[in-house]
Design goal:
The chain is an alpha/beta fold and 234 residues long. The chain folds into two domains: 54 residues, no CATH class; 151 residues, Rossmann fold, CATH 3.40.50. The protein is 40% helix and 15% strand. The chain contains eleven helices and eight strands. A hairpin with a 5-residue loop joins strand 4 and strand 5. The structure holds adenosine-5'-triphosphate and magnesium ion. Magnesium ion binds next to helix 8. The site of magnesium ion has 3 residues, from helix 8.
């Protein structure tokens, strides 16, 4: 009897990704969930195709809407009762992108006017934090990017906000200047990081100053120290 029923049933065909995509209503999805979730569901290629089908400006707005892409731990901690945000995460998990987007948001709010960008070397700062695939220039559309002057180790926004690049190779450059915002990328990998860190902390004294430290975890005294002083650890 059971066998007979099975024979009469039409064969169910396995849905392909293409057939699923045909039935998805992207606009409905955009109203219901963050872009990150949509891309996870439909896949990168289909999402790209969808973006290409949109007017250029709309596609650009979606691509650069960080609040809709970020995982919760990639967004600035709420409240003002913190001054150091330590982001400890593995390789390729989005640390640098989080730093670049945080600088962008803070500059847009007017909270970042004097910014310190700290890296192992000038080449690292340029290749990762500024020009890298998830560096500061990458999080802006071309016409909104800050002006980058490598020879001056400087980025300047139209608002007048300025970011200066400092390196672990010359920690003394951080003695003197004051900042309201600092982003230090991969400090656990620097030599003499404690000197550099104390210079950076000493200069972080303008207004409601804040520091974002993004790094791959390592069992070293520096990380233990920052874990103690940072109010917020993601
Ligand atoms: N929430 C996100 N949505 C979409 N893309 C993301 C997100 N977070 C990070 N990415 C992308 O993932 C890639 C890796 O990110 P990123 O370079 O920031 O990682 P990382 O942790 O700094 O890597 P590394 O360990 O190599 O320094 C980049 O292309 C970045 O733009
Ligand atoms: Mg990185």
């Amino acid at each position: 009897m059971e066998q007979q029923t099975q024979q009469q049933m039409p064969q169910a065909t396995q849905p392909t990704q293409e057939s699923i995509l045909q039935h998805l209503d992207f606009s409905e999805m955009l109203n219901r969930m963050p872009l990150r979730r949509i891309q996870e569901i439909v896949g990168k290629d289909a999402f790209q195709e969808f973006l290409l089908s949109l007017p250029e400006q709309t596609a650009e707005e979606l691509l650069f809407d960080w609040r809709s892409w970020a995982r919760p731990q990639q967004l600035e901690p709420p409240g003002d009762n913190w001054s150091i945000w330590l982001y400890l995460a593995g390789r390729g998990s989005g640390k640098t992108r989080t730093g670049a987007e945080w600088i962008k948001e803070r500059e847009a709010k007017g909270d970042a006017r004097f910014i310190a960008l700290v890296s192992q070397s000038a080449a690292d700062a340029r290749d990762v934090m500024v020009e890298g695939e998830s560096g500061i220039l990458s999080v802006y559309s071309e016409n909104k990017r800050p002006k980058y002057e490598p020879s001056k180790r400087r980025l300047t926004w139209k608002s007048g906000a300025v970011a200066t690049i400092y390196t672990a190779e010359d920690p003394d450059q951080l003695r003197g200047p004051s900042h309201d915002t600092a982003w230090i990328d991969e400090p656990a990998a620097y030599r003499n990081v404690m000197d550099l860190w104390s210079n950076l902390m000493f200069g972080l004294r303008l207004g409601d100053s804040k520091c974002f430290a993004s790094t791959t975890p390592r069992a070293i005294p520096f990380i233990e120290h920052v874990q103690i002083v940072a109010r917020h650890i993601a």
